[in-house]
Amino acid sequence: MISARIKDIDLIFQTDDVLFSPRGIDIGTMSMLSVVEFLPDDKVLDLGCGYGVVGILAAKLIGEENVIMCDISEQAVDFAKRNAALNGVPNVDIRLSNDYDHVEENDFTLILSNPPYHADFSVPKRFIELGFKKLVLGGRMIMVTKRLDWYKNKLITVFGGVKIYRINEYFVFVAEKRSQVVKKKKKVKTGLSKKLQRRERLMN
Question: What is the CA radius of gyration of the chain?
């Protein structure tokens, strides 16, 4: 059993050796949570919830009806459900899902994820690309990893920009959805630039 106090909320978690960070809450997760403020009108997706730290904290702070948690692991989902009940939020929506496969909603204001570090980049690639579509305008994707360059470049490509915090030897990325069609806007700008170049050549 793990006991923790996060954002002035006392929490307890049952874990198992088959789960990620079973002896204590992962430092990366704690680093990510240090930059997150949960607001009453947020709708939160805890993507890859493990035994439930992030989503259960969010449910305690803003209400279980405003949080969805999911994980690809049946064991993780089982322990997350147990821990939700232990912490007084038994009705939080916890789903077995391979990333967004069973997450139909597209109105999240926050997507939080501590993706697997040693997986190939196809996993975080889907997290980021599909997550962009799941966020409302102004919504944010917040991720924590030990790798910098790939995540920085990918988030900038998809979201158009990213804030990066270095905390406890981890990188916490905060990317805000500012447009529905970041890539199309870039193409339009490029097209206009080429037209201007052609016009200048003709004038000369």
Answer: 19
